[in-house]
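Reader question, answered in our methods column.
A reader sent in the components of a multi-part assembly and asked whether the whole thing could be modeled at once rather than chain by chain. We filled in our standard form and ran it. Here is what they sent:
COMPLEX SIZE: two components
ENTRIES:
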Amino acid sequence: MVEITVLKRSRTEAALTQRKFFKKTAKGKVFKVLRERYLRDDVSCGIDGCKICHDTPLPSYGDKNHSSFPDGHFLLPDTNVFLSQMDLIESPLFGPPIILLQTVMEEVRHRSLPLYNRLKALTRMEDKKVWVFYNEFRSETAIVREEDETPNDRNDRGIRKATQWYAQHVALRSSSIRGQDQNSPTILLLTEDAANRFKAEKLGLSALSVRKYVEGMKDSPQLLDLLAAEGSDEIEPTRVATGRQVLYPEYLSTGILVAGVKAGSLHQGHFNANQYNYLEGNVSVPGFNKPILLIGRENMNRAVQGDVVVVEVFDEKEWKAPADEVVDQESTLKDDDAEESEGEGDAEKSGQLREKEAKMVKVEKIASLRSLERLPTGRIVGVIKRNWRAYVCHIESTSLTSSNSTSLSIQTVFATPVSRLLPRIRLRTRQAPTLLNQKILVTIDRWDATSRYPEGHFVRALGRAETKEAEQESLLLEFEVPYRPFGKAILDCLPQQGEQWVVPPKTESSKEWKDREDLRGLNICSIDPPGCQDIDDALHARVLPNGNVEAGVHIADVSHFVHPDTPMDNEAAARGTTVYLVDKRIDMLPALLGTNLCSLRPFVERLAFSAIWELSPEADIVNVRFTKSVIASKAAFTYEEAQIRKDDPHLQDDLTQSIRLLNTLAQKLKAKRMAAGALNLASPEVKIHLDSAESSDPIDVEQKEMRETNSLVEEFMLLANISVARKIEEVFPQTAVLRRHMPPPKTNFEKLQDLLEKRKGFKLDVSSSGVLAKSLDLCVDPDLPAFNTLVRIMATRCMLSAEYFCSGSVGKNTFGHYGLASSIYTHFTSPIRRYADVLAHRQLSAAIGYSPLHPSLHSKAHVERILEVVNKRHRLAQMASRASVEFYVGLALKARGERGGGTGVTEEAFVIRTFRNGIGIFVSKLGIEGLVTFKKDMLFDAENYTMTVAGMVISVFDKVVVRIEVEKDRNTHRGKVKMTLVSPIDSKGM
Amino acid sequence: MASRIEILNEGGFRSDGRRQFELRTIEIDLAQQGQADGSAVIAHGLTHVLVSVFGPREARMRSHTMHDRANINVEISLAAFSTGDRRKRSRGDKRILEFASTIKSTFEPVIQTTLYPRSQIDIFVQVVQQDGGLLQACINGTTLALITAGIAMLDFVCAISGGVHSTSPLLDLTNLEENDVPNMTVAVMPKTQKVSLLTMDTRLHVERFEEIFRLAVEAGSTILVEMKAAVLGRSSRLIESVDSSTQPHGLGVENDNS
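And here is the structure of the entire assembly that came back:
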């Protein structure tokens, strides 16, 4: 039993141990809050060799590699160091032991949660020596805010006091142990605040600024680059510091913003940049049905994709329509000089640029008069939360002043992010020449009102552009996919037998066999795409004596291996999903489980979680049961093999019969689903042919083929998911892990409806999913077989995306899955590659009384938190796989073009959008979208979505032929797909 | 919205610097309060409660007299300034009435009511300051007040609150913690290890329950030590003062055990 004690706190200490403050609630009511704290003497200093303290992971003399501190030292950074120099501290080159004060932790938490999370991760990293010292709870170091002292000053004083205490504490140790001759290590206060340094020195403490400190380190050149821009100003004042023009309006204060949002005069939302036009963006806010449009640099006021911003909406008569033009940042701002624009001192040049941009944003008068197209327009008045992360960028070669590769002088250069949604970033580096032609990671540090571009710093290089390694890594970083190898703690959670693990023989005492059904005798097989290694589902069917059919879906029993609250479980929850790239798979679970122990491979016994139905011959469910089981799959087919087997009349064996039986049932299930109003959606899916496993050079691209057997597997997976969803929702109404697809708001379809009506004369009825499915079926153009697919793709884009949710968090009437027309749905069938399925497995297992449910799954807040992460990961993983396909399509096109003699590839394509100076193109065969731009404006009829190019009328949904080339951008050295029209007219040179 | 304060941080400290199984400071004052036959002021951290006991005496209303045992009457008043927001609660407040009846049912099996037939014991609880663990403070205070009033009881009643943050149990919750974690209050009679009260207003998982329950029973003995010392201290000082003079005044006994 644990020791229970009473902490004594004497009344006389009340001044130090009690804290009284006032708090104002959202409604404006004022509360008095009284809190106490218990000061203690058992908070450990964490330094090895300390006689007084226990639990001491920091090395006894700290770090002796710094030139100024031969006797060793410990770093004690203040809050601002973490807030601005996190990249430096995270760098593997930065090794000195760090003492992290509780005061600092809390201040960081208060200021920025993402940084706080990084800080927490830092304390857990194995190769970093960080000790958290709870100074506010130690009696010697706790302080109380004095009257007329700001919280900031109080914290600074607390940090100094802790530094002082540490210095004494360390000195005490060395004098008592080794006598006076040995010098004790220095406790170094690291702070950017000169006043703080001065005060610390007065107390006899050592204090340094980060830059000064880093300069004395071993790897200083690399580390100096990691310093955030904030530090650089004091040391090297820019030459045109005076006379800086203010380019952007200042933000309003947070108080005004919050009050404004509450009162409804201002609106809060996420900023989305427009990928076609860098001078335009929008913000979706709850107050308006349509997103608020922001036109021009000043109105976008330094917002970056993803920031939470506050918008002021203009008068309705100033509302405008989005521009019908493609505006490319690179071509417009090509000549802007990084060094020059720093101060925006060159008034003439700056003026020119502004004029040029003003012309760009000048919305066509006619366009703005169209009331249908007009959107609420506004400007950003403040930023609530920056959502900056590290971005993958290229250095622009033109911004370099000297490309001499040995030059180590500091240069200011532009880094262009790979994503078209981001502004270019200005950055100062000594390594500019070597970074050219490389993909690099850059973080934005700040964006001043006086600077046209945000300022950032270099984090690290990813490798040469266009090499597969660099492209792959940049893709993973860009979509925030965690791709580090699994750590030791995680691998320790695997079964000890490793590859040799097998299902133990069936005995009474065997733990594995307890409450498991023996289904080894059934004719179970799996059907998957070719080359599939992580087989998580297998099927069987047989006719019962009463004429009904028994069908079973067997899912890999991942929850048998992955137990809640273990390092492996936490990692899987953080990864959320396995990410599939064209030539790489980033696993959610270690490969041993995913591709071996859990994978339902043929001819071996495996643990499974089975859902077994009794279905009537009409495919109605008579009953369903769920059980943990042991199976032995008889075969692993590809879709193609299964299809051939099914269609071959000579084959009459049990396995084939069972596939046929499943197939007939699946057809009936599908018919039922369709009758209930399920949608048949489409997304452009292509398959990349790789040359061979080693070189993995793509040879060609083709569209994915759909066979009957694909739909067979799909139907049974849907059936299993729906049955499981019903069960877990019934047993755990508050915390069941479900998946839903909200019906899209009608306004989302307006544009597509208008397009179809005007161009093709089809009417799209969107009042329900069933009606929509019917009207989509009617959108057929006999001349263009691919047209229907195109409309389906466009309709899919109008819809919302499906999401996981916790059943207790939303109203029961919103559980429905719009696309599948099911009233309830979850994910159960792929626990190897999706974390939500693992949770569903655990809940189902508890629902059938197999195992108790882990307490965390009883907590709504906990489930919500996990699902929020899983949803985000899921979305990003999809985007990453799409981007990976796009990259390979590009490579394949290049390869194909080269084989064809360098003239590029010509393909048929559909027009999906028209602009004043270009058209948006969709190449269905390759599944890619592109732009054909013309140098000058064409005759453009926005009302009817047509434009006239050299006498030819081109309109949306027209079929055209385009030439696709991959050309290298001379400036940033990144491959770019370039399209030109071939037919009806050749737009080369236009 | 998730609170910005961590209930239990990675160093194992709670928001007020305690560890999981450390109780807040307990201050007990058993001095005479006005006309009361027995009284106690008890503080668990920042929760302060004053309990006065009158009786056994004749019941005010005839209907309250029972021929074979004493009637226990509990009344609670919350000071308007006891919480952060100044709010006056009427006596008829349902929450307060429930609270009173909880205390009453806790003590009914412990007080030897059959020794005092046709009488009434009045327990008046005044809550001066609240910071979580109100019920535990009320019960512990009542135990002490009854003892100072010289009313026969089977045993001490020691109450403690407990909760669970994620999977870690916590004892003696502050207001901040009570709002955030599922919690319960347990009152035990340490000598017999009998539980005379267990309340839960929040949902708690059945497997966590047992763990906290055992901890709370254990913690009862820790509190007993404090309470016993206070009672013994008061008694010995009483005896001293009786010895030194025949006039037994100055029953006020400051007790801090320090």
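What stands out: The domain at 73-191+209-227 of chain A is CATH 3.40.50.1010 (Rossmann fold). Chain A is about 30% helix and 25% strand.
Send us your own complexes using the same form.
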